Every structure is written in C-alpha cells, then in structure tokens.
Amino acid sequence: MLAFHDDNYNLLAISSQEDLILPFNQKRHSELFGQVVRSEPRKEEGEIEDIHTGYVRHLHDPQTSDYRNPDGSYIRGNNAEEARLDPLTLQGKSDHSVVKLPSEIAKTINNNILSLRVPSLIRERAAEIYQALEKEQIQRAPVSGLDSDAYIAALFLQDYANVRKVLVELQKRVDTFNPDSVLDIGYGPATGMVALNELMGQDFKPSVKDAYIVGRRNSEMKRRAKIILSRQPCEVEAQAAVSGKKAKDYVGAVDTRKIDVKTNIRDSLSSESKYDLIIVNQTLLTREHSFPRDVDVNLEMVLALLNPGGHLVLVERGNPLGFEIIARARQVMLRPENYTEEKGKIPRPYIRGSKPKPQKLRAEDQLITEEHIKMEEELLRKIQAEEKGVEDEDLEEHLNSKYGELSEDDLKFEDEGEVEVLDPLESHKPSYDGVDYHLSIVAPCPHHGKCPLQLGDPYLYKVRNHKHRFSFCSFNNVVERPKFTMELKKGKKLASLWDKSKLLKTERKAMEGSGRPGGNNTELADYSYLIMQRSPNDEASIKKIESDREHSSSVEEGPATWPRLISFPSKIKKNVKLDVCAASGNIETWQVPKSSGKQTYHDARKARQGDLWPLGKKTVSVKSRFSEEGMARLKSMAKLQRNIVLKEKRKKEWKKMTVKDPALLEDDSEMDPATLNNIYAAKFTSTKKYRQQTRRHDFDK
C-alpha cells in the first residue's frame, strides 16, 4: 500500500485530462497518449510539475505478495521460483545452481601451476587424457609432473563440481552434518577436501583432515595439492592467510616445502584410524577387466575406516562403467538378494565389518540337530495319542496314577544350590553378541532393494545390434569455466567439430551468430553417486534395528522414501510425466495432471532431474525389468562379440609379426624356401600362445 506525502491530493477530483498533472499523461509530439514512464530530462527543464513523487511504504501496511514478508524478503526459498513451491517440494529439491570454482583457486592454478608449462604440451596431453577416458571410461593415476598438470587442467574442474554437488545433498539430508574427522581418497589434488572446505566455510576446523592421493609416483600431485589447499582460509593459520597484493598476483613456481596446511597428505592409509566422513572419488576400480574384484577389495578396506554414525560418499563418472561400480558397491553393502521381502530403509548388517560374526555351526558341533527335533515331535505325537480323550479336570489324577505324586524335591532343578551368582559389573563379556556394523542409504535411492537398472557387467552396455537401449542412473551438473579452462580448450586439438551438413535447417538457424557449438562459459558434467551412513553400534541402536526388521511390513512415509526423478519431466498438455525410482524398488512413470491441483501441477512442471517428489500422483505405470531370458541372450551375444574382437586382434598382431622383418618385404630377395621356413618357424615359436600351448601339453619333455 502506497502512502503519498500530500494528503490533500485526490485523484478522483480531477475532471479532465487537461487538468491531470501526472507525468505519464503529458502530451508529447501531438500524441493522444503521453509517455509511459517518467521523463527525467523534461522534469529537470521544468516542463513537468511532479509534486507527488515522494511516497513511502509503511511497515504496518499489509504485505503485497503471498510469498514475501513485509520487509520484502522471501517467506521460503532463496529466489522467486523457490518461494512459489510447496514446503514439501522445496524440502525435496536438489541443488541446481551453477557451480563456480573460487577465484583464488582458479587464479592459483593458472598462475602457479599451468603457467609453468608450454600451453601446446598441456593441450596435447589433455587430449590424450580425454581420448583414454572416452575409450576406457576410467581415470588413470598421473605419473609425471606434466601428467599432473594436464590432469588438473582437464579434469579437476568437473571433479570438484561433482563432489561439491554430492556434499551439498548430504548436508541437506543430514541436519547435523559436521564431521570431526575427514578422509579424502582420489587421484587428483585432494579434490574432495577442497570441495568440503568451500562448502563448510572458513570456520571448518575438524580435528583430523587426511587426504590420500592414489598412485605409486604421486609426489608431483601432492605438491600441487598443497598449493591449491593453501589458498583456502580454513587450511592455514590466520596470520599466514593474510597476504599482500604482490603474493596474490605472483606468477611462477612455488616452493611447497614452505607451505603448511592442516590437511595431512598421507603416503598410505592406516588401519587404526577412523573417520566420520570418507570421500572416495573415482578410485574404487583401477582396471576395467578387474571388475568387480577391485570394487569389493577397495570397498572393504574403506569401510573398515568408517566410524559408527559416519558417512561414506562414493562419486564416479556418469557413464555405464561408473554406474555399475556404484551399483556393485551398493549390492556388496546392502545384499538386497537376502532381504527380498523387507520394505523401507532399515539399516542392513555388514558382516565383514562387524567384530562379532554370526557363524553357522557344523552338524557335529550342534547341540540340537534335526534328528533331535524329529524325535521330540514323534514322542509328542505318541503322548497325545495315549492321552486322547482324557478330560482336563481328570488330567492331574491321570498323571498321578500313572507316574505317582510329585514331592518338593522333584520340583527343584538338578543344579539348584550349586549355581554361582555372578556380578554383572564384574563381567568382561560384551552385553551384546550380534552384528555391530549396519549401513543404510542416505541418497539417492529411496529403497534398499535390488537396483532396477543394474546389469552386473559393464561390458553388456557395449553389445552391438541389440534391440534394448539400457539406461543407467546418473545426474548432470553445470559448472562455470574459469580462465584456465577456456585457455585450455582453444585451438583445434580440443575444439568441437563444426559440421553443418549433419545439422537440420532449424538447428543451423538456431546456432547462427552463436559461434562454435559449446563455446559458452559453462560445461556439463555427469556423475553417479552413493551416500551411505553407518548406524551407531550401541546396544540400544542395534536392538531397535532388529525390532524394526521384525515389523517391516510397511514403508514409513518421509523424505528418506520419497521417489527421486531419474530424468527430466515430460511436459505435455495439462499433464506432466515423471520417471522416478520409487520406494517399491521399481522404475515407475508417475502422471501428475492439472486436475491434481494448482500447487501440485505447478510444482511438477518445475521439477528437475535429481529432485525428490513428495506430492503424489494421479496414475502410475511400472516399467518392467529386463527378463532372465533376455539377460541370458545378452550375455551370449556379449561372449560372441568378445571372441570376435579377440580374433581380429590376433589377426592384426600376426600380420604385424610376419611383416616385421624388412628382408621379407624385398621383392628381389633371393632367400630359398628353407631359409624363409626357418624365419617363420623362429617367429612362431617366440609367440606367447606357442609357449602357453607348449607348457600345457608338455612338448618340451
């Protein structure tokens, strides 16, 4: 409500347009209607007499919007879009903001790391990293200093953005998130620790901060990790954090021996250390052909370092291999095949990490066997047959007549009086002998069942001529490019192709004037992730978990079991289709039509990939899983394709081997057939296959 300073002003008292003195009604250039906005130049020249510009909004006036407070701030949310959402929808929202690398870190990478190298060498090595990543879908540990610099230039930005988004999700789902001991594991310069420091702020001072950089020759990457960490206020002392203008603008090498940061960059992992938060960034699998053994071994080692009540964060690239790594780790920790009837997200026992381990007794060690049970059942049937027809009131007389009356001594136990009463305070036996290691999912899964998208083998995604196009669980991320990334991707080596012949007319028209495709200051990053929580291992918590498992007939409603969108919603006329991973353990398509309500329909149209959806649906359709027959057929096709690839590879190797000697390629060679035969025989006996067959059949004996 607007209040004018002049209380005598009455707009209704003005009788004609000529008497109207508001500036937007002044005629200009013989126009019937005046200007729409105030003309400051005309006002300064005195052509407009505007005496009613001074108006204020009083605090006691009613609010002008349903989404703002009287002072103009939002009632909920941080922007106008979030302010109009339902409180439950806002609670389930994920962070979709553009990630920006801090300017100090970006400047340090540009001035003190990449500026020491020739740009063409960095681009060439970065191109090799991208090609290897596209072919193998897995990162490699950098070896030399040039490899470390190219790794930082090519992959650090996206890795930082992905880890930060996952940590933001963890912080939102766990209200009490404030770890006191942190471990970061990865190939890069402590990327997870850098992202955590930026998220928690300069007051983040945990008691233990460790970073383990994977790789045998990782000394160069350790130096660069120190340089990057030293630019964060929470990593250095207050006196050391204050630096002059010359230090900030310094370009050149840095002596890392003089840098002291709070993060301890470890040479190895100690089995005695325990952590509240462990971040594993793309290091569960080192070689693709070692899947899934590497995942199982590395995961067991990491879980042994997790404190009760702590969190484990796994981040992988958003490709089929990265998803299968996450799915395998999830299967190892939860074992969904053993709990097919269980509902909800009750913490699952992790037997390998538990100190007391349930063991199945051997038949000869069992006190009560199946034979004993059958014998007791047979005796019970005989007694019931003998006593059949005896009334309840005559039962005592019948027993007394058959077995005699009981005395007081007969009612005593055999060892009564000989049993020693022990004080429980003096007993050193643990009060609980059950499994003391339980894990549950924080995000992204709303259930503990089998993953509906998991195939179990990354190679199955590469099978050609298959009618199914398999989808996998991954999420995208938008990150702003700093200066060093823009400089890296200039030129022909890393530029996108510009082939207009493959584009439609509408696509070419849309790109006109926009430069090269992908030439903006942001880039996309895909990632798959999993956040696990270890339950407290005190007796009360374990008893509650076991009690919940016994009564797990229904799923509790709450943010932990809300379905999560695995793709962007399909918006059609008066209807929105949401592909979600539901609490039932299936991939479902939820339809939210306009008839569901104004607020629900509005929020459904504003939903995005990765959000939780709490407002229900009108109709639902469950997507069928891949059948066992189809899986068997797919595996046979994969085996056939693998054999064909190996056969072609052997042909190429044999061809290279036969033409390796230049003397064999000369046209005027005068070698006799016996000499050629000896040459080919010598080459054949030197092959690996010949040596293997010789050892197998004992031809050397």
UniProtKB/TrEMBL annotation:
It is found in: Mitochondrion. The keyword Iron-sulfur applies. One of its GO terms (molecular function) is 4 iron, 4 sulfur cluster binding. The keyword Ribonucleoprotein does not apply. Keywords: Iron, Iron-sulfur, Metal-binding, Mitochondrion, Transit peptide. It comes from the Eukaryota. GO terms for cellular component: mitochondrial small ribosomal subunit. Transmembrane segments: none annotated. GO terms for biological process: mitochondrial small ribosomal subunit assembly; translation. SUPFAM superfamilies: S-adenosyl-L-methionine-dependent methyltransferases. Coiled coil: none annotated. Its main location: mitochondrion. Mitochondrial ribosome (mitoribosome) assembly factor. Binds at the interface of the head and body domains of the mitochondrial small ribosomal subunit (mt-SSU), occluding the mRNA channel and preventing compaction of the head domain towards the body. Probable inactive methyltransferase: retains the characteristic folding and ability to bind S-adenosyl-L-methionine, but it probably lost its methyltransferase activity. This is Uncharacterized protein.
